[in-house]
Automatic annotation (TrEMBL):
E.C. numbers: 2.1.1.222, 2.1.1.64
UniProt protein name: Ubiquinone biosynthesis O-methyltransferase
Organism of origin: Erythrobacter ani
CDD domains, per database record: AdoMet_MTases
Task performed by this protein: O-methyltransferase that catalyzes the 2 O-methylation steps in the ubiquinone biosynthetic pathway.
Protein backbone atom coordinates (compact mmCIF):
# COMPACT_ATOMS: atom_id res chain seq x y z
CA UNK A 1 0.00 0.00 0.00
CA UNK A 2 1.13 3.53 -0.59
CA UNK A 3 2.90 2.91 -3.91
CA UNK A 4 4.75 5.13 -6.35
CA UNK A 5 4.68 4.95 -10.13
CA UNK A 6 6.01 6.81 -13.16
CA UNK A 7 5.52 10.56 -13.39
CA UNK A 8 2.54 10.39 -15.74
CA UNK A 9 0.98 7.42 -13.97
CA UNK A 10 1.68 8.26 -10.36
CA UNK A 11 -0.56 7.10 -7.57
CA UNK A 12 -3.35 9.59 -7.15
CA UNK A 13 -2.15 12.41 -4.84
CA UNK A 14 -5.09 11.98 -2.49
CA UNK A 15 -4.20 8.29 -2.06
CA UNK A 16 -0.54 9.05 -1.33
CA UNK A 17 -1.68 11.56 1.28
CA UNK A 18 -4.14 9.04 2.71
CA UNK A 19 -1.43 6.45 3.38
CA UNK A 20 1.07 9.07 4.53
CA UNK A 21 -1.38 10.02 7.29
CA UNK A 22 -1.29 6.41 8.47
CA UNK A 23 2.52 6.14 8.46
CA UNK A 24 3.17 6.44 12.18
CA UNK A 25 0.55 3.80 12.99
CA UNK A 26 1.77 1.31 10.37
CA UNK A 27 3.78 -0.91 12.73
CA UNK A 28 1.09 -1.08 15.42
CA UNK A 29 -0.42 -4.59 15.07
CA UNK A 30 -3.58 -3.38 16.82
CA UNK A 31 -3.74 -0.02 15.07
CA UNK A 32 -5.40 1.17 11.89
CA UNK A 33 -3.22 -1.12 9.78
CA UNK A 34 -3.97 -4.26 11.81
CA UNK A 35 -5.37 -5.98 8.72
CA UNK A 36 -1.93 -5.78 7.06
CA UNK A 37 -0.27 -7.46 10.02
CA UNK A 38 -2.81 -10.29 9.80
CA UNK A 39 -2.38 -10.88 6.08
CA UNK A 40 1.41 -10.43 5.96
CA UNK A 41 2.33 -13.96 7.13
CA UNK A 42 0.06 -15.36 4.41
CA UNK A 43 1.76 -13.25 1.77
CA UNK A 44 5.19 -14.26 3.05
CA UNK A 45 4.21 -17.95 2.92
CA UNK A 46 3.42 -17.55 -0.78
CA UNK A 47 6.56 -15.48 -1.41
CA UNK A 48 8.77 -18.08 0.29
CA UNK A 49 7.24 -20.92 -1.73
CA UNK A 50 7.68 -18.88 -4.92
CA UNK A 51 11.35 -18.22 -4.09
CA UNK A 52 12.07 -21.91 -3.55
CA UNK A 53 10.21 -22.90 -6.73
CA UNK A 54 11.84 -20.22 -8.90
CA UNK A 55 15.42 -20.89 -7.84
CA UNK A 56 15.04 -24.58 -6.96
CA UNK A 57 15.98 -23.74 -3.40
CA UNK A 58 15.98 -25.80 -0.24
CA UNK A 59 12.75 -25.13 1.72
CA UNK A 60 14.76 -25.66 4.93
CA UNK A 61 17.20 -22.86 4.12
CA UNK A 62 17.04 -19.96 6.57
CA UNK A 63 18.32 -17.42 4.04
CA UNK A 64 17.16 -18.45 0.57
CA UNK A 65 17.74 -14.93 -0.77
CA UNK A 66 21.37 -14.66 0.31
CA UNK A 67 23.33 -12.96 -2.47
CA UNK A 68 20.16 -11.75 -4.19
CA UNK A 69 18.62 -8.30 -4.49
CA UNK A 70 14.98 -7.52 -3.76
CA UNK A 71 12.78 -4.50 -4.45
CA UNK A 72 9.41 -3.85 -2.80
CA UNK A 73 7.36 -1.28 -4.74
CA UNK A 74 4.84 0.59 -2.64
CA UNK A 75 6.61 -0.62 0.48
CA UNK A 76 4.64 1.39 3.03
CA UNK A 77 6.47 1.20 6.34
CA UNK A 78 8.37 -1.96 5.42
CA UNK A 79 6.16 -4.90 6.39
CA UNK A 80 7.42 -6.95 3.43
CA UNK A 81 10.93 -5.45 3.21
CA UNK A 82 11.93 -6.58 6.68
CA UNK A 83 11.06 -10.28 6.21
CA UNK A 84 12.85 -10.23 2.83
CA UNK A 85 15.95 -8.84 4.53
CA UNK A 86 15.77 -11.59 7.14
CA UNK A 87 15.65 -14.12 4.28
CA UNK A 88 19.06 -12.79 3.24
CA UNK A 89 18.21 -10.32 0.47
CA UNK A 90 19.81 -6.93 -0.17
CA UNK A 91 16.53 -5.00 0.01
CA UNK A 92 15.35 -1.71 -1.45
CA UNK A 93 11.91 -0.29 -0.64
CA UNK A 94 10.25 2.45 -2.70
CA UNK A 95 7.14 4.38 -1.73
CA UNK A 96 5.36 7.49 -2.99
CA UNK A 97 5.12 8.80 0.55
CA UNK A 98 8.21 10.30 2.15
CA UNK A 99 6.52 9.81 5.52
CA UNK A 100 6.21 6.08 4.92
CA UNK A 101 9.83 5.79 3.78
CA UNK A 102 11.02 7.65 6.88
CA UNK A 103 9.01 5.45 9.26
CA UNK A 104 10.25 2.34 7.41
CA UNK A 105 13.90 3.42 7.65
CA UNK A 106 13.59 4.21 11.34
CA UNK A 107 11.95 0.85 12.11
CA UNK A 108 14.55 -1.09 10.10
CA UNK A 109 17.40 0.68 11.90
CA UNK A 110 15.83 -0.06 15.27
CA UNK A 111 15.50 -3.70 14.19
CA UNK A 112 19.14 -3.92 13.13
CA UNK A 113 18.29 -4.38 9.46
CA UNK A 114 20.19 -2.71 6.61
CA UNK A 115 17.44 -1.78 4.15
CA UNK A 116 17.58 1.05 1.61
CA UNK A 117 14.36 3.08 1.48
CA UNK A 118 13.57 5.66 -1.18
CA UNK A 119 10.64 8.02 -1.58
CA UNK A 120 9.56 8.67 -5.15
CA UNK A 121 8.20 7.14 -8.31
CA UNK A 122 9.69 3.81 -9.28
CA UNK A 123 9.72 4.67 -12.99
CA UNK A 124 11.83 7.78 -12.41
CA UNK A 125 14.38 6.27 -10.00
CA UNK A 126 17.69 5.03 -11.44
CA UNK A 127 17.94 1.89 -9.33
CA UNK A 128 18.66 -0.85 -11.87
CA UNK A 129 17.13 -4.32 -11.81
CA UNK A 130 16.47 -6.84 -9.05
CA UNK A 131 16.32 -10.60 -8.65
CA UNK A 132 13.03 -10.37 -6.74
CA UNK A 133 10.41 -7.65 -7.15
CA UNK A 134 7.35 -7.53 -4.91
CA UNK A 135 4.38 -5.17 -4.91
CA UNK A 136 1.50 -6.12 -2.64
CA UNK A 137 -1.86 -4.38 -2.44
CA UNK A 138 -0.60 -1.58 -4.68
CA UNK A 139 -1.88 -1.92 -8.23
CA UNK A 140 -5.46 -1.21 -7.14
CA UNK A 141 -4.31 2.30 -6.17
CA UNK A 142 -2.70 2.99 -9.57
CA UNK A 143 -4.45 5.08 -12.19
CA UNK A 144 -2.73 3.58 -15.28
CA UNK A 145 -2.11 -0.06 -14.45
CA UNK A 146 -0.58 -0.93 -17.83
CA UNK A 147 2.08 1.76 -17.57
CA UNK A 148 2.76 0.88 -13.94
CA UNK A 149 3.36 -2.77 -14.83
CA UNK A 150 5.75 -1.69 -17.59
CA UNK A 151 7.78 0.08 -14.90
CA UNK A 152 7.59 -2.98 -12.65
CA UNK A 153 8.80 -5.24 -15.46
CA UNK A 154 11.68 -2.87 -16.19
CA UNK A 155 12.95 -3.40 -12.63
CA UNK A 156 12.99 -7.20 -12.99
CA UNK A 157 16.29 -8.92 -13.79
CA UNK A 158 16.25 -11.33 -16.78
CA UNK A 159 15.89 -14.39 -14.52
CA UNK A 160 13.95 -12.46 -11.89
CA UNK A 161 10.87 -13.36 -9.88
CA UNK A 162 7.86 -11.05 -9.48
CA UNK A 163 5.22 -11.41 -6.75
CA UNK A 164 2.13 -9.19 -6.59
CA UNK A 165 -1.19 -9.29 -4.74
CA UNK A 166 -4.41 -7.33 -5.05
CA UNK A 167 -8.14 -7.54 -4.27
CA UNK A 168 -10.36 -9.19 -6.88
CA UNK A 169 -13.26 -7.24 -8.43
CA UNK A 170 -16.22 -9.35 -7.37
CA UNK A 171 -19.56 -8.88 -5.66
CA UNK A 172 -18.04 -10.45 -2.54
CA UNK A 173 -15.12 -8.02 -2.43
CA UNK A 174 -17.45 -5.06 -2.88
CA UNK A 175 -19.58 -6.15 0.05
CA UNK A 176 -16.85 -7.41 2.37
CA UNK A 177 -13.58 -5.60 1.55
CA UNK A 178 -15.11 -2.19 0.91
CA UNK A 179 -18.48 -2.04 2.65
CA UNK A 180 -18.26 -4.24 5.72
CA UNK A 181 -14.49 -3.91 6.35
CA UNK A 182 -14.69 -0.11 6.45
CA UNK A 183 -17.96 -0.10 8.39
CA UNK A 184 -16.49 -2.13 11.26
CA UNK A 185 -13.10 -0.42 11.12
CA UNK A 186 -11.15 -3.45 9.85
CA UNK A 187 -9.53 -1.11 7.33
CA UNK A 188 -9.53 2.71 7.44
CA UNK A 189 -12.35 4.38 5.50
CA UNK A 190 -11.19 5.27 2.00
CA UNK A 191 -8.63 2.45 1.76
CA UNK A 192 -10.31 0.74 -1.19
CA UNK A 193 -12.12 1.88 -4.32
CA UNK A 194 -13.87 -1.16 -5.76
CA UNK A 195 -13.92 0.11 -9.34
CA UNK A 196 -10.09 0.11 -9.31
CA UNK A 197 -9.89 -3.61 -8.47
CA UNK A 198 -8.87 -5.98 -11.28
CA UNK A 199 -9.72 -9.61 -11.88
CA UNK A 200 -7.02 -12.31 -12.13
CA UNK A 201 -7.73 -12.67 -15.85
CA UNK A 202 -7.30 -8.93 -16.42
CA UNK A 203 -4.10 -8.99 -14.37
CA UNK A 204 -2.62 -11.88 -16.34
CA UNK A 205 -3.45 -10.14 -19.64
CA UNK A 206 -1.75 -6.93 -18.46
CA UNK A 207 1.34 -8.86 -17.37
CA UNK A 208 1.49 -10.61 -20.73
CA UNK A 209 1.48 -7.21 -22.45
CA UNK A 210 4.71 -6.30 -20.63
CA UNK A 211 6.37 -9.66 -21.36
CA UNK A 212 5.63 -11.52 -18.14
CA UNK A 213 3.93 -14.87 -17.58
CA UNK A 214 2.24 -16.02 -14.39
CA UNK A 215 3.79 -19.09 -12.77
CA UNK A 216 1.47 -19.51 -9.79
CA UNK A 217 -1.66 -17.88 -8.38
CA UNK A 218 -3.54 -18.40 -5.13
CA UNK A 219 -6.45 -16.81 -3.40
CA UNK A 220 -6.18 -15.27 0.06
CA UNK A 221 -9.35 -16.25 1.89
CA UNK A 222 -10.77 -16.14 5.39
CA UNK A 223 -12.20 -19.14 7.20
CA UNK A 224 -13.50 -19.73 10.70
CA UNK A 225 -10.82 -21.47 12.68
CA UNK A 226 -8.27 -20.90 9.92
CA UNK A 227 -8.22 -17.12 9.72
CA UNK A 228 -6.59 -15.71 6.61
CA UNK A 229 -4.94 -18.41 4.50
CA UNK A 230 -3.85 -19.35 0.99
CA UNK A 231 -6.77 -20.91 -0.85
CA UNK A 232 -8.21 -21.81 -4.23
CA UNK A 233 -10.90 -19.23 -3.46
CA UNK A 234 -9.91 -15.97 -5.16
CA UNK A 235 -13.19 -14.11 -4.57
CA UNK A 236 -11.72 -11.54 -2.19
CA UNK A 237 -7.99 -11.32 -2.80
CA UNK A 238 -5.27 -13.13 -4.72
CA UNK A 239 -1.49 -13.27 -4.97
CA UNK A 240 0.57 -14.35 -7.97
CA UNK A 241 4.13 -14.97 -9.09
CA UNK A 242 5.47 -14.25 -12.56
CA UNK A 243 8.64 -14.30 -14.64
CA UNK A 244 9.75 -13.10 -18.06
CA UNK A 245 8.11 -14.96 -20.92
CA UNK A 246 10.37 -17.25 -22.91
Amino acid sequence: MGNANVSNVTIRPEEAAFFADLAKDWWNPRGKMASLHQVNPVRMEFIRDAIDAHWNGDPRSVKPLLGKTALDIGCGAGLVCEPLARLGADVTGVDASAENAAVAASHAEASGLDIRYMAGEVGSLDIGTFDLVTSVEVIEHVADKRAFLADVAARLAPDGLLVMSTPNRTVQSRVLLVGAAEAIGYVPKGTHHWSDFITPEEFEDLLAEVGLEVTDRRGIAYGLGKGLHLSDNEALNYILSARRSN
